[in-house]
Fold:
Amino acid sequence: MKSHTYYVHRLIRDLWVVLLSIVLAVILVRTGALQTLINAAEGAHILGSFLAGIFFTSGFTIAPASVALLEIAKTTPPLLVALWGAIGATVGDLIIFFFIRDAFVDDLVGAFKTSHTVAGILSHLHFALLRWVLPIIGAIIIASPLPDELGLACLGVSKIRIRYLIPLAFVFNFIGIIVITLFV
Structure:
């Protein structure tokens, strides 16, 4: 069994990776590089929708991605924009999910598992209920304008299988994108 220190070090490493990705996302948005990338694909509506969809998943890039999806939807049928945007968003969600599920959640659980206080609190929770509720909360968050990272963390903690995550992420991202393109 790995030690508490091992998991704490890995958790700190994971948090640094998250921090660096946040800094990178902020730089992409502030410098206009993200908008330039999406604008470069503007003539290719499918590619533009797909790229905007990938960036639609992060709380730090959702605003410019939403604007890009709205702009593309002005000249392209909203269902087509939502379809390709949802495919891109599902790809983005899978990238985030693999990081959260494979690294962050395991390290977080490992770091807290050896703590008697946290173990006592966790032992009083009814995990069967959480396994049902967390995926529902995660799916709702993915469909909402909230950052997908929160919803994917719920899904990662619930240990949802990829074969369920892919259609779930696609459907709820499609709903979120179609609502934006049709009603905003």
Observations:
- The mean pLDDT is 77.
- The first helix runs from residue 4 to 30.
- The two ends are 52 Å apart (CA to CA).
